Amino acid sequence: MHLTKRLGAEIFGTFWLVLGGCGSAVLAAAFPHVGIGLAGVSLAFGLTVLTMAFAIGHVSGCHLNPAVSIGLAAAGRFPVRDLVPYIVAQVIGATLGAWVLSMIATGAPGFDLVASGFAANGFGEHSPGGYSMIAALICEVVMTFFFLFVILGATDDRAPKGFAPIAIGLCLTLIHLISIPVTNTSVNPARSTGPALFVGGWALDQLWLFWIAPIAGAIIAGIVYPALTRETRSHVAGVVAR
Length: 242
Fold this sequence. Notes:
The chain is an all-alpha fold. It is built from eleven helices and no strands. It has helices spanning 3-28, 37-60, 66-74, 83-105, 113-116, 133-154, 164-183, 189-199, 202-205, 209-229, 233-241.
């Protein structure tokens, strides 16, 4: 597939992730009678990835996340030359998604985008549970590591075919169930950047962590997964002989 088409798919996909995931937190979670809560927001993020994986996975690979692209490159699954264009496309998609969400959210009387937090990621006093910077850093590295680990495993040639979007979407749901109280869950620098651009102030000041930690976790997974699962020549020969 031509790079231009792949980048277009990444823009649309990341747009949907931010609009769907952050939108559930900003719009629906504010209504107690809707009752979506933490579980509903977590599921919304998982569903955005699951649905887009089926929609554009065959076009761009449905990364929707700079950390995913970098982790796949570290694992030898993605060309390094395409990293910058993919990351730019993902940030554009996330920013457009946040912009549309802001247009919808500010249509409600009395809505204050900055005061609401706008689903931005944070630590310390801007963590939903008041978690420290170190706790946030560890959480984001570990959660992104396992996200990439599942992605690499689910898309491995040896894995059952056709189930990768389900495994990846459910993994992202689980990650949110664990880490929303800690950082509002990033594991995705583009997802963090979109809302932060509209909140400004503290959200932009703390954005560095939500680039560094997910990318570090993704690179570690990109190194560990191939090392852990690579078959030796003797093992392969033995399997063939049997």
